[in-house]
Every structure is written in C-alpha cells, then in structure tokens.
Amino acid sequence: MIRGRASRRGLLRSLFAAAFIMTSPAAPSRATEPHRLALQISDDDPAKMRAVLDVAANVSRHYSGQGDDVEIVVVAFNGGLDMLLDDRSPVKERLLNFLKSMPNVSFIACGNTLETLAVKEGRRPPLIEGISVTRVGVAALMDLAEKNWTIVRP
After folding, report:
1. Number of domains in the chain
2. Whole-angstrom Cα distance, residue 40 to residue 75?
3. What are 20-29's pLDDT values in tens digits?
4. What average pLDDT does range 38-60 have in this prediction?
5. Residue 138 lies in a domain
6. Within-domain flag for 27
7. Which run of H or E residues covers position 70?
8. CA gap 102, 133 in Å, rounded
9. Average of pLDDT values for 128-154?
C-alpha cells in the first residue's frame, strides 16, 4: 500500500513537472534573430567581386529556403571599391539587380578609399545609387564582428 502511494506521488510530480515545462515561456531561440554576414571585398579583381555576389546570393537563398531571415552587408575598400563605382564597376548590372531585388543585402563603401581616389583622380568618383558610405571600411567590419556578425572574405 505504501508503495502504491509513493508511485502515485511520483507520477503526480512527473505530470506536474511536465505541465510546468509545457506552459513555461520558451527561451528565445537563435532562429528568431536573423543570421548576419558581412562580406569583405578589398581587391580590384572582377572574379573576386563576382564571388562576393555569388556568396551573398547563395547565403540569402539558403536561409530564405529554411524560413530564416538573413542580413548581408558587403563592405568595399581599397581596390575592391571599384565594385561600387558607377563609372567602372565590372559587376554593375548584377549589383543593380541585387539592390532592386534583395533588400536584405546592402553595400558599404569606405570613405577613406573614396577620398584617396578623389585626390588621385581630381574628383570624387561617383558611387552606384543606393550605396552607403562609412568613414573607415575596416573599422566598419570590426564593429560588425564585435556585434557577432560573421565576417568572410571570399
């Protein structure tokens, strides 16, 4: 008889614990926050520029296919800035398509590199419309890394 009561108490405790767990608010999951990727382009190489765009498209497609949000930013400095320049980007048409159709992908130009080009060329080269500017491209990448963004240099 004592054994039966103990079993019932154990069963009741288990049921109570299960009910408590089921009604407790769940801890926020990682999936509720968007994935965040920063891509670096610092080389004046059209193949690397295309690779950056390929990676952005593939990562965006991957997470969208899983129902997850993803934020992607491309940071260009040094020779990679040519990717974002209106008068010489070797990937201009594809980049324009990104700006129109992929709102989760943004592009940032290094202000220091822009100023260096302005001195060298006698004018500030025009950026493709929709490109943001940061003062220091590398510092922008560091800031993103400190906010737990994943930094990749394809």
Report:
1. 1
2. 5
3. 444 444 444 4
4. 98
5. yes
6. no
7. strand 70-76
8. 19
9. 98
Alpha helices in the chain (DSSP H): 2-23, 46-65, 92-101, 111-121, 137-146
Q: Is 104 helix (H, G, I), strand (E, B) or coil?
A: coil
Read off the pLDDT band of 130 (50, 70, 90). very high
Structure tokens of 54?
């390929």
Domain of 144, in residue numbers: 35-152
> Is the residue at 102 inside a domain?
yes
Residue 99 belongs to a domain with what CATH number? 3.40.1260.10
**Helices in 24-80 by DSSP H: which ranges?**
46-65
Distance CA 31, CA 117 (A): 41
- Let me know if residue 9 belongs to a domain: no
Structure-block tokens of residue 124? 């500030």
- Measured between its terminal Cα atoms, the distance across the chain in Å is 71
